[in-house]
Specification:
321 residues, alpha+beta, Methylamine Dehydrogenase, Chain H, four-stranded antiparallel sheet, 32% strand, WD repeat, WD40/YVTN_repeat-like_dom_sf, WD40_rpt, FBXW5 protein, FBXW5
Length: 321
Protein backbone atom coordinates (compact mmCIF):
# COMPACT_ATOMS: atom_id res chain seq x y z
CA UNK A 1 0.00 0.00 0.00
CA UNK A 2 3.03 2.27 -0.05
CA UNK A 3 3.07 5.14 -2.55
CA UNK A 4 6.80 4.97 -3.28
CA UNK A 5 9.47 2.30 -3.53
CA UNK A 6 11.34 3.85 -0.59
CA UNK A 7 8.31 3.65 1.69
CA UNK A 8 7.78 0.07 0.59
CA UNK A 9 11.43 -0.70 1.36
CA UNK A 10 11.08 0.86 4.83
CA UNK A 11 7.94 -1.19 5.46
CA UNK A 12 9.64 -4.44 4.45
CA UNK A 13 12.82 -3.65 6.35
CA UNK A 14 11.50 -2.11 9.56
CA UNK A 15 8.02 -3.49 10.21
CA UNK A 16 8.15 -7.17 9.19
CA UNK A 17 7.92 -9.12 12.47
CA UNK A 18 10.85 -11.41 13.26
CA UNK A 19 10.35 -14.21 15.76
CA UNK A 20 13.15 -16.50 16.86
CA UNK A 21 11.82 -20.03 16.66
CA UNK A 22 15.00 -22.03 17.26
CA UNK A 23 18.68 -21.53 18.11
CA UNK A 24 21.15 -23.88 16.39
CA UNK A 25 24.24 -24.35 18.55
CA UNK A 26 26.00 -27.30 16.90
CA UNK A 27 28.82 -25.12 15.47
CA UNK A 28 31.53 -24.24 18.00
CA UNK A 29 33.04 -21.31 16.08
CA UNK A 30 31.93 -18.44 13.84
CA UNK A 31 29.42 -19.33 11.10
CA UNK A 32 30.62 -17.83 7.79
CA UNK A 33 27.98 -18.81 5.24
CA UNK A 34 24.51 -20.33 4.80
CA UNK A 35 23.05 -21.71 1.57
CA UNK A 36 19.58 -23.12 0.92
CA UNK A 37 18.63 -25.90 -1.46
CA UNK A 38 16.43 -24.94 -4.41
CA UNK A 39 13.52 -26.88 -2.93
CA UNK A 40 13.94 -25.02 0.38
CA UNK A 41 13.83 -28.26 2.37
CA UNK A 42 17.56 -28.24 3.25
CA UNK A 43 20.27 -25.73 4.05
CA UNK A 44 24.03 -25.98 4.64
CA UNK A 45 26.21 -23.98 7.03
CA UNK A 46 29.97 -23.35 6.86
CA UNK A 47 32.05 -22.35 9.84
CA UNK A 48 35.52 -21.60 11.16
CA UNK A 49 35.25 -24.87 13.10
CA UNK A 50 36.08 -26.47 9.71
CA UNK A 51 32.80 -28.35 9.37
CA UNK A 52 29.96 -28.13 6.90
CA UNK A 53 26.61 -29.08 8.38
CA UNK A 54 23.48 -30.01 6.44
CA UNK A 55 20.14 -29.24 8.06
CA UNK A 56 16.55 -30.24 7.41
CA UNK A 57 14.53 -27.03 7.10
CA UNK A 58 11.32 -28.31 8.67
CA UNK A 59 9.25 -26.64 11.37
CA UNK A 60 11.60 -28.25 13.83
CA UNK A 61 15.04 -27.80 12.22
CA UNK A 62 17.24 -30.88 12.63
CA UNK A 63 20.85 -31.70 11.78
CA UNK A 64 21.09 -34.26 8.95
CA UNK A 65 24.85 -34.53 8.52
CA UNK A 66 28.15 -32.95 9.53
CA UNK A 67 31.43 -33.25 7.61
CA UNK A 68 34.71 -32.38 9.31
CA UNK A 69 37.25 -31.19 6.72
CA UNK A 70 40.29 -30.96 9.01
CA UNK A 71 41.56 -34.45 8.00
CA UNK A 72 41.98 -33.00 4.48
CA UNK A 73 44.23 -30.17 5.78
CA UNK A 74 41.48 -27.57 5.59
CA UNK A 75 41.67 -24.54 7.88
CA UNK A 76 37.95 -23.72 7.66
CA UNK A 77 34.92 -24.01 5.38
CA UNK A 78 33.76 -20.74 3.84
CA UNK A 79 31.09 -21.26 1.17
CA UNK A 80 28.60 -23.85 -0.10
CA UNK A 81 26.14 -24.17 -2.97
CA UNK A 82 23.59 -26.82 -3.96
CA UNK A 83 23.46 -27.84 -7.62
CA UNK A 84 20.27 -27.18 -9.57
CA UNK A 85 18.59 -30.50 -8.74
CA UNK A 86 19.82 -30.53 -5.10
CA UNK A 87 21.61 -33.86 -5.58
CA UNK A 88 25.12 -32.48 -4.88
CA UNK A 89 26.61 -29.91 -2.52
CA UNK A 90 29.68 -27.85 -3.41
CA UNK A 91 31.74 -26.86 -0.35
CA UNK A 92 34.62 -24.38 -0.60
CA UNK A 93 37.28 -23.89 2.03
CA UNK A 94 40.83 -22.79 2.82
CA UNK A 95 43.46 -25.48 2.34
CA UNK A 96 46.74 -25.32 4.26
CA UNK A 97 49.55 -26.66 2.09
CA UNK A 98 53.32 -27.11 2.54
CA UNK A 99 55.15 -24.42 4.54
CA UNK A 100 51.74 -23.16 5.77
CA UNK A 101 50.91 -21.73 2.36
CA UNK A 102 47.16 -21.29 2.04
CA UNK A 103 45.14 -21.80 -1.09
CA UNK A 104 41.63 -23.08 -1.54
CA UNK A 105 39.95 -26.38 -2.19
CA UNK A 106 36.46 -27.38 -3.31
CA UNK A 107 34.76 -30.57 -2.16
CA UNK A 108 31.65 -32.17 -3.67
CA UNK A 109 29.33 -34.07 -1.32
CA UNK A 110 26.55 -36.39 -2.46
CA UNK A 111 23.17 -35.55 -0.92
CA UNK A 112 22.02 -39.15 -1.29
CA UNK A 113 24.43 -40.72 1.22
CA UNK A 114 26.62 -37.70 2.23
CA UNK A 115 29.78 -39.26 0.77
CA UNK A 116 32.68 -37.13 -0.46
CA UNK A 117 32.80 -37.52 -4.25
CA UNK A 118 35.75 -35.35 -5.28
CA UNK A 119 38.12 -32.56 -4.26
CA UNK A 120 39.40 -29.79 -6.54
CA UNK A 121 42.21 -27.33 -5.80
CA UNK A 122 41.04 -23.70 -5.92
CA UNK A 123 43.52 -20.80 -5.96
CA UNK A 124 43.14 -18.23 -4.55
CA UNK A 125 40.59 -19.46 -2.03
CA UNK A 126 38.35 -16.39 -2.44
CA UNK A 127 37.41 -17.55 -5.95
CA UNK A 128 34.96 -19.70 -3.92
CA UNK A 129 33.79 -21.73 -6.95
CA UNK A 130 30.29 -22.36 -8.28
CA UNK A 131 28.12 -24.76 -10.28
CA UNK A 132 27.80 -24.34 -14.04
CA UNK A 133 25.21 -27.12 -14.37
CA UNK A 134 24.09 -30.22 -12.46
CA UNK A 135 27.42 -32.08 -12.65
CA UNK A 136 30.12 -29.51 -13.54
CA UNK A 137 31.66 -26.83 -11.35
CA UNK A 138 34.04 -23.91 -11.89
CA UNK A 139 37.29 -23.53 -9.94
CA UNK A 140 40.23 -21.16 -10.23
CA UNK A 141 44.01 -21.16 -10.44
CA UNK A 142 46.57 -18.36 -10.33
CA UNK A 143 49.88 -18.05 -12.18
CA UNK A 144 52.33 -15.33 -11.18
CA UNK A 145 53.89 -13.48 -14.11
CA UNK A 146 55.74 -10.82 -12.11
CA UNK A 147 55.65 -9.12 -8.72
CA UNK A 148 52.25 -7.47 -9.31
CA UNK A 149 50.97 -9.10 -12.49
CA UNK A 150 49.39 -12.52 -12.73
CA UNK A 151 47.03 -14.65 -14.79
CA UNK A 152 43.80 -16.11 -13.43
CA UNK A 153 42.65 -19.36 -15.02
CA UNK A 154 39.11 -20.65 -14.59
CA UNK A 155 38.60 -24.41 -14.95
CA UNK A 156 35.54 -26.54 -15.59
CA UNK A 157 35.56 -29.67 -13.43
CA UNK A 158 33.45 -32.82 -13.39
CA UNK A 159 31.96 -33.50 -9.96
CA UNK A 160 32.57 -37.25 -10.37
CA UNK A 161 36.32 -37.12 -11.02
CA UNK A 162 37.18 -40.35 -9.23
CA UNK A 163 34.30 -42.36 -10.67
CA UNK A 164 34.12 -41.68 -14.40
CA UNK A 165 36.05 -43.63 -17.04
CA UNK A 166 39.69 -42.71 -17.53
CA UNK A 167 38.82 -41.79 -21.13
CA UNK A 168 36.41 -39.04 -20.03
CA UNK A 169 37.82 -35.52 -19.60
CA UNK A 170 37.19 -34.36 -16.05
CA UNK A 171 38.76 -30.88 -16.39
CA UNK A 172 38.70 -28.26 -19.15
CA UNK A 173 40.15 -24.77 -19.22
CA UNK A 174 37.51 -22.08 -19.73
CA UNK A 175 39.23 -18.69 -19.47
CA UNK A 176 42.59 -17.03 -18.90
CA UNK A 177 42.38 -13.46 -17.61
CA UNK A 178 45.26 -11.01 -17.17
CA UNK A 179 45.49 -9.35 -13.73
CA UNK A 180 47.16 -5.99 -13.15
CA UNK A 181 48.37 -4.32 -9.94
CA UNK A 182 48.25 -7.50 -7.83
CA UNK A 183 44.51 -7.97 -8.33
CA UNK A 184 42.94 -11.38 -8.99
CA UNK A 185 39.62 -12.87 -10.10
CA UNK A 186 37.42 -13.58 -7.07
CA UNK A 187 33.87 -14.50 -6.04
CA UNK A 188 32.96 -16.36 -9.22
CA UNK A 189 29.29 -17.09 -9.89
CA UNK A 190 27.16 -18.17 -12.85
CA UNK A 191 23.79 -16.54 -13.54
CA UNK A 192 21.10 -17.71 -15.95
CA UNK A 193 19.59 -14.39 -17.01
CA UNK A 194 17.91 -15.53 -20.22
CA UNK A 195 14.45 -14.73 -18.89
CA UNK A 196 15.54 -11.14 -18.26
CA UNK A 197 17.06 -10.55 -21.70
CA UNK A 198 15.83 -7.28 -23.12
CA UNK A 199 17.35 -4.80 -25.61
CA UNK A 200 16.61 -2.03 -23.11
CA UNK A 201 18.71 -3.71 -20.42
CA UNK A 202 21.76 -4.62 -22.48
CA UNK A 203 24.61 -2.40 -23.63
CA UNK A 204 25.34 -2.70 -27.31
CA UNK A 205 28.44 -4.57 -28.40
CA UNK A 206 30.58 -1.46 -28.98
CA UNK A 207 29.89 -0.11 -25.47
CA UNK A 208 30.62 -3.50 -23.90
CA UNK A 209 33.96 -3.73 -25.70
CA UNK A 210 34.91 -0.20 -24.63
CA UNK A 211 33.83 -0.80 -21.03
CA UNK A 212 35.88 -4.00 -20.76
CA UNK A 213 39.06 -2.64 -22.38
CA UNK A 214 40.82 -2.11 -19.04
CA UNK A 215 40.64 -5.77 -17.93
CA UNK A 216 40.01 -7.85 -21.05
CA UNK A 217 39.96 -11.59 -21.47
CA UNK A 218 42.81 -12.81 -23.63
CA UNK A 219 44.46 -15.93 -24.93
CA UNK A 220 47.89 -16.85 -23.55
CA UNK A 221 48.45 -19.48 -26.22
CA UNK A 222 47.19 -23.00 -26.68
CA UNK A 223 47.99 -25.88 -24.36
CA UNK A 224 47.91 -29.02 -26.47
CA UNK A 225 47.22 -31.27 -23.50
CA UNK A 226 44.25 -29.18 -22.41
CA UNK A 227 42.48 -28.27 -25.63
CA UNK A 228 40.98 -30.30 -28.42
CA UNK A 229 43.03 -30.57 -31.58
CA UNK A 230 41.05 -29.18 -34.49
CA UNK A 231 41.90 -29.81 -38.14
CA UNK A 232 43.43 -26.84 -39.91
CA UNK A 233 41.17 -25.11 -42.40
CA UNK A 234 41.88 -22.55 -45.07
CA UNK A 235 40.99 -19.06 -43.82
CA UNK A 236 37.85 -17.53 -45.24
CA UNK A 237 38.16 -14.17 -47.01
CA UNK A 238 36.05 -12.43 -44.39
CA UNK A 239 38.46 -13.45 -41.64
CA UNK A 240 41.47 -11.88 -43.34
CA UNK A 241 40.15 -8.36 -42.75
CA UNK A 242 40.29 -8.65 -38.92
CA UNK A 243 38.95 -5.15 -38.21
CA UNK A 244 38.56 -5.85 -34.49
CA UNK A 245 42.19 -6.89 -34.06
CA UNK A 246 43.40 -3.58 -35.40
CA UNK A 247 41.29 -1.84 -32.76
CA UNK A 248 43.19 -3.48 -29.88
CA UNK A 249 46.72 -2.66 -30.99
CA UNK A 250 48.92 -1.01 -28.39
CA UNK A 251 49.15 2.76 -28.08
CA UNK A 252 52.21 4.34 -29.73
CA UNK A 253 53.74 5.14 -26.32
CA UNK A 254 53.42 1.55 -25.13
CA UNK A 255 54.71 0.23 -28.43
CA UNK A 256 57.76 2.51 -28.18
CA UNK A 257 58.33 1.28 -24.61
CA UNK A 258 58.23 -2.31 -25.80
CA UNK A 259 60.63 -1.55 -28.66
CA UNK A 260 63.07 0.13 -26.23
CA UNK A 261 62.99 -2.88 -23.91
CA UNK A 262 63.65 -5.25 -26.81
CA UNK A 263 66.65 -3.11 -27.82
CA UNK A 264 68.05 -3.12 -24.27
CA UNK A 265 67.18 0.50 -23.43
CA UNK A 266 66.14 0.77 -19.74
CA UNK A 267 63.19 3.19 -19.28
CA UNK A 268 63.35 5.76 -16.48
CA UNK A 269 60.83 4.07 -14.16
CA UNK A 270 60.72 1.69 -11.25
CA UNK A 271 60.59 -2.07 -11.72
CA UNK A 272 56.95 -2.15 -10.59
CA UNK A 273 55.94 0.62 -13.02
CA UNK A 274 57.78 -1.13 -15.85
CA UNK A 275 56.07 -4.43 -15.08
CA UNK A 276 52.63 -2.80 -15.13
CA UNK A 277 53.32 -1.08 -18.47
CA UNK A 278 54.59 -4.29 -20.09
CA UNK A 279 51.58 -6.22 -18.79
CA UNK A 280 49.22 -3.57 -20.19
CA UNK A 281 50.95 -3.78 -23.58
CA UNK A 282 50.77 -7.58 -23.47
CA UNK A 283 47.04 -7.49 -22.70
CA UNK A 284 46.21 -5.10 -25.52
CA UNK A 285 48.20 -7.03 -28.10
CA UNK A 286 46.75 -10.43 -27.11
CA UNK A 287 43.09 -9.49 -26.65
CA UNK A 288 40.67 -11.22 -28.98
CA UNK A 289 37.10 -10.01 -29.63
CA UNK A 290 34.23 -12.45 -29.05
CA UNK A 291 33.43 -14.72 -31.97
CA UNK A 292 29.96 -13.51 -32.84
CA UNK A 293 29.19 -16.59 -34.92
CA UNK A 294 29.46 -18.71 -31.75
CA UNK A 295 26.94 -16.65 -29.77
CA UNK A 296 23.47 -18.23 -29.37
CA UNK A 297 20.91 -16.89 -31.82
CA UNK A 298 17.77 -18.79 -30.82
CA UNK A 299 15.45 -16.85 -28.55
CA UNK A 300 14.83 -19.89 -26.36
CA UNK A 301 18.53 -20.75 -25.89
CA UNK A 302 19.77 -20.66 -22.32
CA UNK A 303 22.21 -17.79 -21.92
CA UNK A 304 24.49 -17.95 -18.89
CA UNK A 305 26.75 -15.22 -17.58
CA UNK A 306 29.99 -15.58 -15.65
CA UNK A 307 30.14 -12.88 -12.96
CA UNK A 308 33.14 -12.13 -10.74
CA UNK A 309 34.86 -9.36 -8.81
CA UNK A 310 38.19 -8.01 -10.00
CA UNK A 311 40.20 -4.83 -10.36
CA UNK A 312 42.91 -3.15 -12.41
CA UNK A 313 43.90 -0.19 -10.21
CA UNK A 314 44.65 -1.90 -6.90
CA UNK A 315 44.69 -5.25 -5.08
CA UNK A 316 41.24 -4.66 -3.56
CA UNK A 317 38.41 -5.73 -5.89
CA UNK A 318 36.61 -2.64 -7.19
CA UNK A 319 35.06 -3.86 -10.43
CA UNK A 320 32.51 -6.45 -11.49
CA UNK A 321 33.35 -8.55 -14.53
Amino acid sequence: AAVSWYEEFQRLYDTIPCVEVQALKEHNDQVLHLSFSHSGSLFASCSKDCTVKIWSNELDISLQHSSNMRPYNWSYTQFSQFNSDDSLLLVSGVFVGPHNSSSGEIAVISMENFTLLSRVRNKPYDVFGCWLNETNLISGNLHRIGRITSCSVLWLNNAFQGIESENVNVVKRLFKIQNLNASTIRTVMVADCSRYDSPDLLLDYEEQLAASSTCPVFDLGSDSEEEEVRPKQAPEPAVQELPAERDVRAEPGLQQLFDDIMEGVRPAMTETELETKVAELFVRNRTKPPELNLLPTESNSKTKYLIFTTGCLTYSPHQIG
